[in-house]
Design brief:
The longest helix has 27 residues. This protein has 10 helices and 7 strands. By secondary structure, the protein is an alpha/beta fold. It has one domain: Rossmann fold (3-Layer(aba) Sandwich), CATH 3.40.50. It has a 7-stranded parallel beta sheet with strand order 3-2-4-1-5-6-7, sandwiched between helices. Belongs to the SIMIBI class G3E GTPase family. HypB/HupM subfamily.
Length: about 230
Amino acid sequence: MHQTVDAALGINLLHANQEGADHNRVHFDEWGVTCLNLMSSPGAGKTVLLEKTLAALRPELKIAVIEGDMTTELDADRLRQYDVPVIAINTGRSCHLDAKMVAGGIHQLKQDHRPTDLDLVLVENVGNLVCPAEFEVGEHAKVALLSVTEGEDKPLKYPVMFQAADCLLITKIDLAPYLDIEIERIVANVRQLNPRVKVIPVSAQSGDGLERWFDWLRSQVRSRKPAHQSA
């Protein structure tokens, strides 16, 4: 089949990005660090989830954050209050982080900190339901967030992110009683696309489900720590 120029360019871009992502992952593996890529639409609650996560897990895990945003360091500044390394990346007009951008964050992390001391790097991607899922950054697993305020049909209308996710957090569940929405229907729609995904309903406001999320994070870190470090 003859490809259009745009289609061929897209394939080449994804191929080049994948090579960069694989290279980034090599660094994380050499350091014994787990990297997770957090993706969602704007306003689904990624930053507040990270705030709760850092507050709860910082005493037991050494965590760094690579914070992606189109402009400003507002979210990065919120996370710096938890006394963890936070690398801010402004993407300009780009609607996602890519492997090259995260490579720059890795370089800065190596310059300013000792990455071999870390357990976990959390990448907060730019708020977008489509593009972040198509561009790997070197992560070991993808985490998607979907707020109950976004509706039950979003997984079916924007399937790529939910097909790629290893873990789905259904956020703001404290608002569900005030909405014409069923969390079970969201789960069913996601399972049509991705039967293997781990689904965790959470509320950063009430704390419901957060301990399940923390336990999943701990399991991800344990699964990749070298035996001599996890013993």
